[in-house]
Amino acid sequence: MERIEQFIEQWLPYITKASIETFQMVSVSLVISIIIGIPLGVLLVLTRPGQAWENNFIYQVLNVLINIIRSIPFIILLFFLIPFTKAIVGTTIGVRGVIVPLVVYTAPYLARLLETSLLEVDEGVKEAYQAMGIKTHQIIWHVILREARSSIVLGLTIVTVGLIGATAMAGLVGAGGLGDLAYRFGHIRYEVDVMYATVIILIIIVQTIQTIGNKLAAYLKKD
Amino acid sequence: MITLENVSKTFYTKKGQVDAVKNVNLKIKKGEIHGVIGHSGAGKSTLIRCVNLLERPTSGKVYIGEDELTALNKTALQEKRKKIGMIFQGFNLLKTATVYDNIALPLQLTGVAKDEIPKRVDQYIDIVGLSERKNAYPAQLSGGQKQRVAIARALALEPEILLSDEATSALDPETTESILDLLLKINREFGITILLITHEMHVIQRICDSVSVMEDGEIVEQNRVADIFIDPKHPTTKKFLNTLNEEQINQFLLSELAEKGSVFRLTFTGATTSEPIIALLSQQYDVKPNIIHADVTQLKDGVIGRLVIHLDGDQSDVEKALTFLREQGVGIAAWEVA
């Protein structure tokens, strides 16, 4: 009992700080990834042959680009993007410095998952709305994204969990976070308890996110 | 109301060129129900999709009223489409929306005034008889109920035309009847012109004023429904007519009878339905009529009586009897033993 109290007293500030950093990194890059990834996913579906904005050139370029980015492991992307990151946010270290690579890593992944979700939407429903004289941009929002919403939520859940994993490497550019805490104290300084504590926290976070995602998706499904 | 002029549609696929619709001409009057019947692959689905340009014809013109649809730009076409409702075999409802929202959303998106929407939705939910299920999701409805929602959705935009793409094909016979009654009701009450496609002669018989028979991308026969029942010309038309009630006739008996006499199918319409023509036949001519099968079919307007009859007698007497029948306006077709 005493040992636990002592552990909490000693490590709680570190764990709290690391949790906040992880939360910041995940939430900010998730929001930016959604802003970029969703239009990208929509574009990836609608430029396909036979779709509303059919354009083979755009489709192929996006397709190849996404594949290229998705082939690079995050840890390599992190260093590979240093000049780009510097140009965009003015720094390559700290939470700010890691957001850019996290977004570059996540947005194409989200776009890919979204593509799968949107392709599941029944062609017939889109057609019914076209036949009613509804404009394409209205169909995208009110029909395609709406009908795919349950599947999109599941995709977002997968992306979020992936993001949490990627932030573990953010310590390499001094952005901190739970992964970094486990690595620096748990692994390098042999503070095994810190390692266990962080792992347990991460498990709880991931379980919670997945459960919320599943519940929300089931609620939104309606069929 | 709907005019198709030399409409053709060709698809270019990896396997080669498919002429789905070939040079079709069609004129449908305002307030009429016109049916296009054909087997699957006959091109009828492509044809109906050419009417609202879901499928753009390779050549030919489509007119709705005075406007040439095929000449409109995208925006003008979208505007015009609001007045052309369409229902589908697969219903095509939003799974994530309630009955109410499925009908309300298109109204909202086409710019119907906000305070007008609830009134209209309620009005049309009521017409299709689903007031009780207003807040249900499509997954909680039966096929027939889903099609009713789809009909209400189309009607709520107050179209002049309703296109029906095999709307009853996925439904059981009883539900089909109720949907056909509903289509008949909206045609009569709102004067909406309906173009429907189907592979069931029963649908044509029940609600259509006129019919086109389609085969291999072409319209092979076109007539008023009553006339097509009396005097079908194309073999495909005859085949479709045979699908009605055929199964009730004993084929074995027929082939036996055909050996000692002739079997005919007689079709009566209008006044001839109420006269005792068969009784007169045996009195005036030396033939013995034997009724093998009889039924009365209700058409949209009027009744059609059909008899399968065996005439026993001399060749010349039979001929005389047939002439008499023709003079009475009875449709006659020799029975071909299957």
Short overview:
The complex is a heterodimer of chains A (223) and B (338). Chain A has 223 residues and is mainly alpha-helical. Chain A is built from 10 helices and no strands.
* Total of helices of chain B: 12
**Low-confidence segments of chain A, ≥5 residues, pLDDT <50?**
none
Largest interface, C-beta closer than 8 angstroms, per-chain residues: A-B, 23 and 30 residues
Q: How would you sum up the global shape of chain A?
A: elongated
The main sheet of chain B orders its strands as 6-7-8-3-9-10
Number of helical stretches of at least 4 residues of chain A? 10
Mean pLDDT of chain B: 89
Tell me the span between the first and last alpha carbons of chain A: 50 Å
- Kindly estimate the percentage of residues of chain B that lie in beta strands according to DSSP: 25-35%
Shape estimate of chain B: elongated
Oligomer: heterodimer
Which runs of chain B of at least 5 residues are low in confidence (pLDDT < 50)?
none
Helix content of chain A: over 70%
Q: What is the total tally of β strands of chain B?
A: 14
